[in-house]
Amino acid sequence: MGKNVVAAEVYAQFRRAFSMLRGSIEAFGEEEWRGGDIDFLIPCRQAYHAIESVEYYLSEYPGEFKWGHRFDGDWEGMPAGELPTQEEVLDYLDEMQATVDAWLKGLGDEGLLAPQKGFPWTGKTPLGRALYVLRHGQHHLAEMNTELRRRGIDRPDWQ
Q1: How far apart are CA 103 and CA 55, in angstroms?
Q2: Distance from first CA to last CA of the chain, Å, rounded?
Q3: Domain boundaries of the chain, sorted by first residue
Q4: What is the rounded CA–CA span in Å between residue 132 and residue 118?
Q5: CA quadruple 145, 148, 152, 154: dihedral sign
Q6: What does residue 71 show for φ and ψ, rounded to 5 degrees?
Q7: Helices (DSSP H) in 28-150: which residue ranges?
Q8: Does pTM surpass 0.85?
Q9: Do residues 7 and 107 touch, judged by C-beta distance below 8 A?
């Protein structure tokens, strides 16, 4: 095994999680994407929040993070018709995947296991924060997949 085994494994798990999120986003038709009978569970809201949270948790200064900056509105509060398109959310996902990739490669195993200053509720190390972000994203992915099932739409395969 190489010297950055932990970072490589975390990297692989993020890749799989992002791939599954992409599959869920793409599974919804355009008419389903911004709609639903439960406002909180509108697929776009869940995807937007999951991806924006990645940006937040990888930010250097969390106190200065501006929620809603990407699409000029809060994922919970925006009117459904003003929520971003699937293409816009997929572009955001691609950017955050690149951000995570660079973050993990920059830290390596040593950095992942070092003490962290911010985000104390996520753990004592950047590894704890990475695992927290994965868990948070999987939570919202599960909500999206439940909506796919409820709507009779095929869900992406587990990875």
Answers
A1: 11
A2: 23
A3: 5-150
A4: 13
A5: negative
A6: -120, 20
A7: 30-33, 43-57, 86-112, 126-150
A8: yes
A9: yes
Q: Is residue 90 within 8 Å of residue 78, measured between CB atoms?
A: no
- Check: CATH 3.40.50.880 for 5-150? no
Collapsed DSSP state (helix, strand, coil) of residue 122: helix
- C-alpha 23/C-alpha 134 separation (Å) is 16
**pLDDT tens-place string over residues 39-85:** 999 999 999 999 999 999 999 888 889 999 999 999 989 999 999 99
With CA atoms as reference, report the closest residue to 46 among 119, 145, 131, 157.
145
Q: Which of 9, 28, 82, 18 is nearest to 50 (CA)?
A: 18
The two structure tokens encoding residue 96: 């955050």
SS3 29: coil
Provide φ and ψ at 35, rounded to 5°.
-130, 170
